[in-house]
Structures are given as C-alpha cells and as structure tokens.
Amino acid sequence: MTVSSFQPPARVLMGPGPSDVHPRVLAATARPTVGHLDPAFSAMMDEIKSLLRYAFQTENALTFPVSAPGSAGMEACFVNLIEPGDTVIVAINGVFGLRMKENVLRCGATPVVVEDDWGTAISLDKVAQAFRDNPGARALAFVHAETSTGVRSDAKALCTMAAESGALSIVDTVTGLGGIPVQVDDWGADAVYSGTQKCLSCPPGLSPVTFSDRAADVVRNRKTPVQSWFLDLSLVMGYWDGSGGRSYHHTAPVNALYGLHEALVMLREEGLEAAWARHDRLHHALVTGLQAMGLEMLVDEDHRLPQLNAVCVPEGVDEAAVRKALLDDYGIEIGAGLGALAGKVWRIGLMGQSCTPRHVTLCLAALEGTLARFQANIATGQAVAAAQRALAA
Ligand SMILES: *Cc1c(COP(=O)(O)O)cnc(C)c1O
Fold first, then answer.
1. In 3D, which of 14, 53, 65, 6 has the Cα closest to residue 259?
2. What is the distance between the alpha carbons of residues 138 and 169, in angstroms, rounded to a whole number?
3. For helices 233-240 and 213-220, what crossing angle results, to 10°?
4. pLDDT class for 243, splitting at 50, 70, 90?
5. What's the gap in Å between 237 CA and the centre of ligand 1?
6. Closest CA relative to residue 180, chosen from 147, 148, 142
7. How far is the CA of 71 from the centre of ligand 1 (A)?
8. Is 187 helix (H, G, I), strand (E, B) or coil?
C-alpha cells in the first residue's frame, strides 16, 4: 500500500461547526513547536487566559482552555462541581441538554429534568417550579445556544434563578462564544464552557472554560476526589496558573494553542460587539433570502441564534440528497437535523469566519439552484437579491 500526504478538499463550512478557519489562524498553528514549559510559551498561555476573560466578559481567575474538545469542557464542569448524591436540575430542549443529563448520571448524582420542545427556548416558569420542588438542588445546568435546534435561551434569567436558589449554574455556550453576547459576570454564571471550532473559528480540539470564585470554592471543598484525573481542576490549575511556578500536568497542545491565541487576537481586533453585530446582520440577510425562496425557519424570531439557522425541509424534498449536492457541486457543507429533527431541518451555520456576505450569497444561490433542480416548490430568482437588499439597508 502506498500512502501519500492527505490533501483536504476545498470546502465552505456552513454547518454546526467546525467553521472556516482564517489563514492567519492556520499559519499560527504551523509555527515551530516549542517546549510546553518554555518561558515564551508560558507568556502566551497568560495572554490566552486574559483574552478568554475578554471573550467571556469575566474577571474569573479560573479561565483557561481545556486541552480537548467542547465535550471535555462539559465534562470538566460536571465532574468538578457535582458529587455523588447531589441533585441537579437539567433543562433539556435539544441534543446537548440530553448530554448534560448523561454527565449528571455519570457523576452519581440525580438529574431533575425540565423539558421543552425542541426548537423552543427553555421555559423560565418550569425551571422556577423545579427549584420550588427541589429546594436542595446543587446546580442548574442548561444550554445557552442549542446547536441542535438553533435556539437561544435566556442565560441571565436562568443563572439568576440558580443563584437565588443557592444553586450553581452550569452553562453550555459552545456555540455562543464570539457569536452572541456571553456575559459571564453580568449573568452571575458559575461554570461556563465553550469550544474553539464554532464562532471562534479555530480548528476543533480545545474547550475554553471559566469558573466563578464560588465554583472554585466548591471544588476545593469537595468531600470526594474528582473521579477524572485528567480533568481535575485542582491539578490542571497547577499547570495553567503560573503564580506558584508552572508544573507539569499534561503536555499542552502547543500548536493548537498558537491557533487559539491568534483567533482571540483577531476577535479582540474586531471587537466583541462588532462580532456580535456582524452575526446578527448576516443572519437577517440569510433569513430574508431563505424566506424569499418560500422556506420556513424552525425557531420563532425572538429565540433564533444568528449563528445557527434551522431551516424546515420543504415537503417531498430528500434532505440528504440536497446536502450531498451542495457538497459535491459547490463544496458547501451544511448540517442535518439531529435526533427528533432528523430529516426535518437543515442547519446552516454562520459562525465566525463563515459569517460573511460571501457565505450568505453563495449559500442562498447554491441552495436555490439545487432545490430548483430537485423540483422543490420554491420561488426562484429572488433570494440573493432580497439578501443583498437586507445587507444594504
Ligand atoms: C459542538 C457542541 C458541543 C460539543 O463540542 P465538541 O467540540 O464537539 O466536543 C457541546 N455543546 C454544544 C451546544 C455544541 O454546539
């Protein structure tokens, strides 16, 4: 067998992540590897921590990227804060809420599930009722930006409710960070995790996390050791917290961290507010174009995520064949529906570097041409123009 270098095809990434990675970030990851305890590298780690505090809008000392994808950030929050016998209220309105419940169970704790229909936001009333029914709950866990449905929930109200009930808040904002306001201190959130391959537009593989001082105290005062050695914050912080001299825990993914540093520098250059406004503006242009074609959105206007657009598949259309044609004919990747929404929606991502006028117009033109070829009942010749009018307004 002869094996040669892998050459990835040229793609336009408009699914639920990863998103397109800027050449500056790719170039950063190609710089020479240095030792992970090299003083120059340590200085860069400190910059990453402070850039992440900016991205998360927090002063939390305990803010760093876990050396593994978003799912590991999720796991880090649960295994450090939850102990056997705890009760945790878990709000579920999509795939990622289900995974939170799975984490609670594996910590030996009891999940109290609050369910909402997929495609709708988390009901504050139901969560309030769950706190009344479970006064001793240790934590509330919820997904701020549900990538499986394209729904945004009210993180501030949910975190406030948890704090008022004496519970910690555990927040998944893997898809939120860099795309919509994530204001950890203003929310009063306790444990928040994200990912690099969504609106931060890095390669996948790192999970920025931040913990409040209150959460850090909970970790310090645990009755039982954290069951995961790799994710045990008390050990990881010996490495990420330079104050006592950095000690070896695991070898940091050096080049991946160069990439994250560069992406965060770019976010800082653009400015968080400008990045949020860009996502909002292009989302409106995309939706205007989709609606001009006669397509419908899954989520009510008030709860839509700009960076993840769930579009209903028109009657009689083979959704997988459309995605395949977009990939084969145009190099465009969009996402399929998950779980209860499989076959019913497409998920069009406008995340980070994949959120530009070029992406919106290209996607609309390619989708329209493909649907027309599949004889779907849509209006043709209007979508791109409608989106461009929206962008010019
Ligand atoms: C992508 C995603 C995750 C998981 O991140 P991985 O990097 O795939 O492990 C978790 N939660 C949400 C909301 C996500 O969108």
1. 65
2. 9
3. 120
4. low
5. 23
6. 147
7. 6
8. helix
Q: Kindly state the average pLDDT of the residues 228-256.
A: 86
- Map out the domains of the chain as residue ranges: 23-268, 271-392
Could you tell me if the CB of 238 is within 6 A of ligand 1? no
- Neighbouring CB atoms inside 10 A of 4's CB total 5
Compute the distance between CA of residue 304 and CA of residue 300 in angstroms, rounded to an integer.
6
Q: DSSP 3-state assignment of 365?
A: helix
Residue 244 has pLDDT above 70, yes or no: no
Residue 159: CA atoms inside 13 Å, Cβ hemisphere, count?
22
Check if 369 has its Cβ closer than 6 Å to any atom of ligand 1.
no
Helix axes 254-270, 39-56, angle to 10 degrees: 40
Average pLDDT over residues 20-45: 96
Task: Please state the atom number of ligand 1 nearest to the C-alpha of residue 308.
Answer: 15
CA distance 389 to 393: 6
Give exposure, 343-361, as e/b (b: 16+ Cβ within 10 Å).
ebbbbbbbbbbbbeeebbb
Closest CA to 367 of 101, 238, 359, 303: 359
Class of domain 271-392: alpha beta
Say how many Å lie between the CA of residue 351 and the centre of ligand 1: 13
The fold for domain 23-268 equals Aspartate Aminotransferase; domain 2 (3.40.640)
- Counting residues of the chain whose pLDDT is more than 70, the rounded percentage is 99
Helix axes 95-106, 70-81, angle to 10 degrees: 40
Q: Are 92 and 105 in contact (CB under 8 A)?
A: no
Coil vs helix vs strand at 379: coil
Q: Determine how many CB atoms are found less than 10 A away from the CB of residue 93.
A: 25
Regarding the beta carbon of 143 and ligand 1, being less than 6 Å apart is answered yes
What percentage of the chain's residues is helix, strand, coil (to nearest 5)?
45, 15, 40
Dihedral sign from CA coordinates of 117, 118, 120, 124: positive
Distance between CA atoms of 300 and 318, rounded to whole angstroms?
24
66 lines ligand 1 (CB under 6 A): no
Please state, rounded to an integer, the average pLDDT across all residues of the chain.
96
Distance CA 158, CA 95 (A): 19
Q: Which of 270, 210, 184 is nearest to 81 (CA)?
A: 210
